[in-house]
Design brief:
Elements: H1 3-6, H2 17-34, H3 36-41, H4 46-70, H5 78-106, E1 116-118, E2 138-141, E3 147-149, E4 154-161, E5 168-174, E6 179-189, E7 196-197, E8 202-206, E9 219-226, E10 233-234
Antiparallel strand pairs: 1-2, 2-9, 3-8, 4-5, 4-7, 5-6, 6-8, 6-9, 9-10
Amino acid sequence: MTRADTLDLPAPRRGRWPTLLILATAAVAIAAGASPSIAHSLPRFFFPTVAVIGAVAATIGLVRALRRLARGERPRQTSDLLRLGMLLTAFVLLAVLPLVRLVGMLTAPSTGSPYILAGFGAWIGGEGYPHPSRHRGLDIKGAVGTDVLAAAGGRVAVARDHGDLCGLIVAIVHDPHGYRTVYCHSATLHVTAGDEVRRGQRIATLGTTGQRAWPGYEHVHLELQRGTDRNAVEDPKPRLVGCFVPGASYPTDRLVLTYPVACRERDR
């Protein structure tokens, strides 16, 4: 027996590649979410692919850790407990939440009102991943190239490339109610500042400018702001009265909104 055989040597450390891959995935996601230039410089399938890799790594790492626990192996160091907690958190954030969002989208009715991917005040974005701040409006799903409609009549205050995560933006002032609606991520604009628009009029086409949506998750970001203070936002949903119907009458004593995209076929 050698001297080394008599020593109480620690067991070899197990592979840490799932943890490292999860950290790399998080770094890429943060960079993409903070920079439109990064998001638009890469193929649209790049970030979904990275997210899937992160989800697989989190799942494999968690399964391995749970199997070791099932065999009676207990964490021996604080770092092992932290790593287990990180794997569990990553599994929820990278696999469970996005899967729940995908299932909800796939099982939504195929007709009727447009599907809302992310609601006002939500901490979860359109694709099902956490955001560092609460959502300022509604992400309303639609196909790229479809018409973006004015949610109410008013005057166009802004119609340009905002150069940030909003992308091509339209803002409409709704007098005398003291509100304005904001529409983000358009592909093309069909109004200019100063134009008077009617409810249901085409103001843009739906796109992925700014914070680039994943394939299948394209949407209009709709905000409702009080006055000209961009930080004074309200939930647009309580004011929504359905999809725009030509010839229908709408209240004028208060601001009511229609969806900024048309209803899905056969149920308008």
